[in-house]
Design goal:
2 domains; globular; Rossmann fold; 241 residues; DNA polymerase, domain 1; 41% helix; 7 strands; alpha/beta
Length: 241
């Protein structure tokens, strides 16, 4: 499925030379067993930290995630925790559920210009995921939560730091994300925006508010298959369409 919102069409990608991808539930299938592992470890961490029963800890985690952008930011603000300890613990997961995605890799490699990963996770986690997918070498930079000074998307300052560090012109960039709220600032900056809502999204930890916004003006395109979307762009470029 590929959907256009508003007046933009695929010709808007003609001048794009910076391709920016979120990581979790964007570059790998949402129905994989990877992100649920992270969520489970976050919940366990919150439970141990607060001493709350599992269900109450889960509700607190959800509240922090929604309010602060990441659970980590909430725990740092409300509980003054060590970010290094948290990040090391929650990203110590089994990546073996991921397999190389040749079609996605070929599409990313064929994109004209530079490619980046911009994630609220750690660079180490992103490197592990990209390695399992076989796409590590396609990216010029991986910008994680540590590089963002622990300020997560959708904060405006995080995008500003990323584009400044990598000398990106937002008018010539596109952002791929699985959360509509994380596309609002890129849109304001002048980027093309693509919401990736792959099949199986409901099987992972997703709140109703996370799945909202697909029809909002700051979401310019929607797809349920990133590889197919990129292949479509490339086919139009090659045909001059």
């Amino acid at each position: 499925m590929i959907k256009q919102n508003g007046r933009l069409d695929f010709s808007s990608f003609d001048e794009v030379d910076a391709w920016i991808f979120d990581l979790d539930n964007t570059l790998y299938p949402a129905h994989s067993d990877l992100f649920p592992q992270i969520i489970q470890k976050i919940n366990t961490y919150v439970q141990r930290l607060t001493g709350k029963p599992s269900e109450e800890a889960h509700e607190l985690q959800r509240e922090y995630y929604k309010t602060y952008g990441t659970t980590l930011r909430g725990l740092m603000t409300e509980h003054d925790i060590s970010p290094d300890e948290f990040l090391e613990y929650v990203h110590d997961i089994d990546h073996s559920c991921l397999e190389p995605d040749e079609r996605l890799g070929q599409a990313i490699q064929s994109l004209p210009g530079r490619r980046f990963i911009l994630t609220n996770g750690t660079k180490k986690h992103a490197e592990a995921v990209a390695s399992k997918l076989g796409i590590t070498h396609h990216f010029e930079d991986i910008f994680g939560i540590v590089e963002a000074d622990l300020v997560p998307k959708p904060a405006h300052e995080t995008y500003n730091k990323f584009i400044t560090q990598n000398r990106i012109d937002p008018a010539s960039a596109v952002m791929f994300e699985d959360l509509a709220r994380n596309l609002e600032v890129p849109h304001l900056l002048g980027m093309r925006t693509v919401l990736v809502v792959p099949e199986g999204t409901r099987e992972v930890f997703r709140e109703d508010w996370e799945l909202e916004g697909a029809a909002d003006p700051h979401v310019e395109f929607v797809t349920d298959n990133l590889g197919e979307f990129l292949a479509h762009i490339l086919s139009l470029k090659s045909s001059g369409g």
